[in-house]
Specification:
- Keywords: Membrane, Transmembrane, Transmembrane helix.
- The chain has 3 helices and no strands.
- The chain is mainly α and 67 residues long.
- The two termini are 21 Å apart.
Length: 67
């Protein structure tokens, strides 16, 4: 169950970062700090997601060996 929660958190970070970046595009006088925060949040989510994918890339092989 922890694996699903980790992926959920990664997805939430990516969506929040994307929403912040879309907000800065839609609003003319948006602060540069919001754009920077959006980039940081989306990159953090992507970093966590790729680390998770790299750590679990061979899980399907272990499941096949158990059967």
């Amino acid at each position: 169950m922890a694996k699903n929660n980790s992926q959920l958190y990664n997805t939430i970070f990516i969506i929040i970062g994307g929403a912040l970046l879309l907000y800065t595009i839609a609003v003319e006088d948006a602060s540069h700090y919001i754009k920077i925060a959006g980039l940081i949040v989306i990159m953090f989510g992507l970093y966590r997601a790729t680390n998770y994918w790299a750590a679990t890339k061979d899980d399907h092989k272990e499941e096949q060996n158990e059967e």
